[in-house]
Specification:
The chain is mostly helical. The protein is built from 19 helices and four strands. 60% of the residues lie in helices and 3% in strands. The strands form two sheets. It has a two-stranded antiparallel ribbon. Strands 3-4 form a two-stranded antiparallel ribbon. The two termini are 20 Å apart.
């Protein structure tokens, strides 16, 4: 995928893993084995308003009854796991809770506004499932994840690291007749919570005692092991291309290990200067060229790489320190996508 979501897998994302497994399993169970129980999970606002069936606000907004919605929302949650790694499980859960509660209020307001201003009576049943918080996550995704171009197509149009995520969101947005109400409610609730409007982030949050309780009981169940540092090597068309791909992979692994070592040493020092790891550990290609030169002395080390202040600012906007941003950009040769992936992973 094109998005900058760090390493693959669900390492350090137990809440995202639980949101992928539990609602999806229940959705499949209702669709295949218990179709007669689906009526209990219908998101019926008229029943909530007229018959005071408040329980439908909970049951109708957790499990998707449409398998297409289940599939799209699961893919989006997997890609949005980056926020749980960045903020922590408690803050991520607080955002989901806040957007989930606020979106229910916005659902009522939108339906009443449609009927009052336009005379349009919306259907009593809105799409069921954990959809509004998924749409709400597009707000921090748009604001805090840098846009990195991947390919240029049709002149000004280009494919970026975020294009696939927006396509999935558009697919989910167009999957039903009235899902646009849930989508707008989710975006409005995400905007309110992310901008800390009316201090909702302090009211709608997970208490520390509850976070500790779930961390002690459920996190061991849904935790994932740390992914290995090995990555799949691309299969080039020729042996030369395969060798080049292997050298690029080894260079990247060496660069990441050097950067991680630099961060560990800097954290142990109260005040320490930047370490030029490229000077201490030359890249593999450079060492390979030295071997082919027949024992000739290598050239003097190159001066430190100039780092774009714009890219440093973009990384700092994501919450990273200036020192980490400088080191990551220097180690990745000013590649913002690689630097972002590594900082989010570590």
């Amino acid at each position: 995928m094109f998005t900058s979501t760090g390493s693959s897998g669900l390492y350090k994302a137990p809440l995202s893993k639980s949101l992928l497994l539990v609602p999806s399993a229940l959705s499949l169970l209702l669709a295949l084995l218990l179709p007669h129980c689906q009526k209990l999970f219908v998101y019926d606002l008229h029943a909530v308003k007229n018959d005071f069936q408040i329980w439908r606000l909970i049951c109708g907004r957790i499990i998707c009854l449409d398998l297409k919605d289940t599939f799209c929302s699961s893919l989006l949650i997997y890609n949005f796991r980056i926020f749980e790694r960045r903020y922590g499980s408690r803050k991520f859960a607080s955002f989901l809770l806040g957007s989930w509660v606020l979106s229910a209020l916005f659902d009522f307001l939108l339906i009443e506004a449609m009927q009052y201003f336009f005379g349009i009576t919306a259907a009593s049943n809105l799409p069921s499932g954990f959809l509004a918080p998924v749409f709400a996550l597009f707000v921090p995704f748009y604001c805090s994840i840098p846009r990195v171009q991947v390919a240029q197509i049709l002149g000004p149009l280009s494919i970026t690291n975020k294009t696939l995520i927006y396509i999935l969101g558009l697919q989910l947005f167009t999957s039903g007749s009235y899902i646009w109400i849930v989508a707008i409610s989710g975006l409005m609730s995400g905007l309110c919570y992310d901008s800390k409007m009316f201090q909702v982030h302090q009211v709608l949050c997970i208490p520390s005692w509850m976070a500790k309780f779930f961390s002690w009981t459920l996190e061991p169940i849904f935790s994932s092991s740390e992914p290995t540092s090995e990555a799949r090597i691309g299969m080039g068309a020729t042996l030369d291309i395969q060798r080049q791909q292997r050298m690029e992979l080894l260079d990247r692994q060496l660069m990441f290990s050097q950067f991680a070592q630099g961060r560990r040493q800097r954290q142990q020092q109260v005040k320490g200067g930047m370490i030029n790891w490229n000077r201490l550990f030359p890249p593999l290609r450079q060492r390979q060229n030295v071997n082919y030169q027949g024992g000739r002395q290598s050239e003097p080390a190159a001066p430190p790489l100039e780092v774009s202040e714009e890219q440093v600012a973009r990384l700092m906007e994501m919450g990273f320190s200036r020192g980490d941003a400088l080191e990551a950009l220097r180690a990745s040769n000013n590649d913002l996508n690689v630097a972002t992936n590594f900082l989010l992973q570590h």
